[in-house]
Amino acid sequence: MAYVGSGTPILGAPTMTADQMRQYVRSVNPSAPDYAELYLSIGRRYHVRGDLAFAQSILETNYWRFGGSVNASQNNFAGLGSTSRTEAGASFPTPELGIEAQIQHLYGYATAAPLPAGTTLVDPRFSILQSAGLRGTAPNWEDLNGKWAVPGTTYGQDILRIGEQMQAISTGSAPTAPVTDWKQEAMQWLSRQGLINQPHDPDAPLTWAEFGTVLRRLTGGGQ
Question: Which residue intervals define the domain Mannosyl-glycoprotein endo-beta-N-acetylglucosamidase-like in the entry (predicted)?
Fold first, then answer.
């Protein structure tokens, strides 16, 4: 029987509009590409929350500014196959296919059901979920912690936090959080790259030993 956790389901209808999504990402990166409609339309095919998949890509790509092991030309907006800071991961010929692969991977984690009728497998790592017995083991965004991102102890919560900031646009609230959260985003990036074990207080003092550890990992010196 598949594990059923508690939290915010990956499957379901979006609660945000494409306009909210593009306004939010462009409040931080005005040159970000406009993939909002693609996330919503492809998400509907799989009954996956396309708005929160979009939030996941914001987290993974640093608002489509990249800077990690995956670059923009790969059309890989969720780090599929990028299992270390030196592994570039999968590449896709078009943004549409990259987004569909991401949605399929989310679908694979959320449910053990077959792919929806009329869809074609494009996720190169879907079979890994199947063979590893991971299908249906993460029905909620919070369940992706330690699965999609390692250690990723707050990975799902970080996606949902971005989703909440995006949702605030619909109430007329100014999206101020992206400006004030840049320190946390930097800590999350360091964690995803394996340079620190988990995010810390970004304003806490840094010791020379901690600084040396980050430099050692950055240059491939291990732990």
Answer: 37-111
Residues composing the chain: 223
Is the CB of residue 36 less than 8 Å from the CB of residue 22? yes
**Residue 189: other Cβ atoms inside 10 A:** 17
- C-alpha 80/C-alpha 60 separation (Å) is 10
Question: Is 87 domain-assigned?
Answer: yes
**Which two tokens mark 135?**
């299908």
pTM value? 0.77
Closest C-alpha to 54, from 101, 19, 12, 21: 21
- Consecutive 10-residue averages of pLDDT for the chain (223 residues): 66 96 95 98 98 97 92 96 82 98 98 97 97 97 92 92 90 49 63 63 66 71 51
Q: Which CATH number do you get for residue 101?
A: 1.10.530.10
Q: How far is CA 11 from CA 37, 55, 207, in A?
A: 18, 15, 43
Tell me if 54 is assigned to some domain. yes
The number of folded domains in the chain is 1
| Structural domain includes residue 187 | no
